[in-house]
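Kindly review this record before class:
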Amino acid sequence: MVACTHAGTVRGRVFNNNRTVIVIMIRTFEGITPVIAASTYIDEAAVVIGNVTIGEHSSVWPTVVIRGDVNTISIGDRTSIQDGSVLHVNHDADDNPGGDPLTIGSDVTVGHKVMLHGCTIQDHCLIGMSSTVLDKAVVESHTMIGAGSLVSPGKVLESGYLYMGMPARQVRKLTDEELAYIDYAAQFYARLKEKHRVTDD
């Protein structure tokens, strides 16, 4: 792991009017800087703030916001956070001691425009596009959430099942093909981010 040692990772872009726009992707908050593995790809249009840890060979895609300002956010290895997703947490309070950190395991694919807030996503999961997982919910390993689903606060999704709906309900056991696809998706994005790293260089 490597931590940024300055306020942000800065990349300049020059547009047709010769105006340079400075993009600050990785930001320190109250003296805490995100700790991001050197092998992880952070798109220049994403923002990562504060008390955030991201493991090896993960990827954070355009317009993602990961805001660890009032609690911790931990993301494992080979996990993909796709375009437009928002990750946030709850602060420590008298009625919520310790608050709600956000923990995402390894080999997880978080689809486009997903909202994850103060919840736990264990290893080998796929979170469908435009889904929302709320405070204190737990998504156990080897679970798939269908697109557009809402996981209510405190709900536990049992390992090995497909969940869909608003609120999300257990639909059926995952097939062997679906379980294999969860791992395939994680490996695919771990490879794809390497092509983007080369393009950016």
